[in-house]
Specification:
Helix content is about 40%, strand content about 20%. The protein has about 525 residues and is of the alpha+beta class. Bound molecules: adenosine-5'-diphosphate and magnesium ion (MG).
Length: about 525
Amino acid sequence: MSQTPPPTNSFAQMQAGRPTGPLVQGYEVIIGFETHTQLTTQSKIFSRASTAFGAEPNTQASAVDFALPGALPVMNKGAVQRAIEFGLAVGAHIAESSVFARKNYFYPDLPKGYQISQFEIPVVQGGTVEFFLPSTGSGQALEKKTVRLVRAHLEEDAGKSLHEDFIGMSGIDLNRAGTPLLEIVTEPDMRSSLEAVAYAKELHKIVTWIGICDGNMQEGSFRCDANVSVRKPGAELGTRREIKNLNSFKFMQQAIDYEVRWQIEQLEDGHAIQQATVLFDPDTGETRSMRTKEDAADYRYFPDPDLPPLVISREWVEKTRSEMKELPRAMAARFRSQYGLSDYDANQLTSSWGIAKDYEDAAKLSKEPKLAANWYINAVLPALSASDALPEVSVAKLMSDDAPAKIAALISRISDNTISNKAAKQVFELLWSRNATFAEPVTQVDALIEQLGLKQMSDTGELEKIIDDVLAANVKNVEEVKAGNAKAMNALVGQAMKATKGKANPTQVNELLKKKLG
Ligand code: ADP
Ligand code: MG
């Protein structure tokens, strides 16, 4: 059997000249990711056992998952469907025919002695993930980054060894055996831990957005392996070490930063880096070697004779394409052109499907897309993150289903000068905390404005009278304004606002003052 490795692009080797990221102590950092995403199918990839998390050990494993002799795998169409959706989301090629292979190795939680995976011909080939790097300051243009994918292939997960519940022996739980995974592999295109985390967050956003993965990192539904090496600018790629199973963005950053420092220290001390698989220990903040790394040849891959090639018709691909919802990048681009939003705003508002959908509802209802964007970015998103919500939970769930209508109602009351921006913020807080008390969103907003006495003074006559009183009582300020002192004008505005208990519209106060003082 051929042991040719899967096609990889030698782009990184070719561009060995110019460093594209920040140097660390004179070294360039090179990172490539392999991410295991657990697919959202109800049943396993080759059996009908359930994939639900948290059941009693071995209650969700069938003959296939236990590897009983003679049990035959049957491909789950839903897993293929999700692989196609992912491929389309990242602009990849969907193979007409791909092949399942046996990856042979022994492990107690893998009773078959091999894992069914894809090797030479994966179902998804190529593609890119585009994202913005976190901005360094507000108003700064966002830096765009593109990471090329090598491939994404379907495979089964292994079981779990349980070491903690037993003394002098280990238990084996095969509930997880056969859980469908899509392993997504990048080129070594990332140049810092910052870029690596931004990539991982974007990938997480894509797979949860299209719904092929629930994204639950604590439960292991989305786990990343970071391959890290360092080199002097212009040198060939260095030897990499692979940090396994990073299941939080925070640990990801810490682990890569530690690993980079460690490798540089080794090289500076004159030691060569050994290719290895390492684990990150969050308690010590260090990475520790687990085993020296196997090469592909060690696995003796060969096509699994129990499974025919996976054939995907072009009709299936096109049908899937036509049924997919708008993707985050496309939606952000549309928000920019249709609603005139900045890169930053459009990016923020497409951080999850729920938020994007809610924002757009509010934009349409209020007919003020920019104001709605401000409200979502400055009020809703911070409230959401404060409430510790998962990114995929929609605002609607937290604020009740009429959240966009409430935001639209708030905006309309600012536009028609009923309340100030500051007052609107107060109403927002209350809407948030007491969200089920009123029926109609508009009634609710108006009722709160009334109840809190936040209504701005709309009667110009009344306001003019107050301003006349202020002018009469502050003769000295008036003289200074007339002499050209701008600060004195602010003092007058302040006095007038105080006299109206903050209910006047400051712009209107300013205009009236200017008119009266000539
Ligand atoms: P394997 O499947 O044996 O782990 P691959 O060649 O498929 O090896 O690469 C796995 C991952 O390692 C890919 O994401 C790739 O981009 C990354 N990678 C390869 N070489 C390097 C390197 N020198 N430094 C950092 N990452 C690398
Ligand atoms: Mg690997």
